[in-house]
Write a structure and sequence with these properties.
With 70 residues, the chain is mostly helical. Helix content is 66%, strand content 0%. Helix 1 packs antiparallel against helix 2.
């Protein structure tokens, strides 16, 4: 897959994913909500690390700077 996530988008995903993970560890979420938070956390972190978002590809979106596109 082509990269389609810019630096700011990656940073936001890491912050949100990290916050969800810390909230889970803190016990803020319980039961099914905790599982959903972990799934969203994993998706955010994986897409930030890989630099690509399948949903963005499907929608035709791209937050990557044009000068950084390969």
């Amino acid at each position: 897959m082509k990269m389609n996530i810019g630096k700011l988008d990656r940073l936001i995903r890491i912050i949100i994913g990290g916050a969800l993970f810390l909230a889970f560890l803190n016990g803020t979420f319980t039961g099914p909500v905790a599982i959903a938070a972990l799934v969203v956390c994993a998706i955010m972190m994986l897409t930030a690390i890989m630099g690509t978002c399948p949903l963005y590809s499907w929608m035709g979106w791209n937050t990557l700077d044009k000068k950084n596109i390969n």
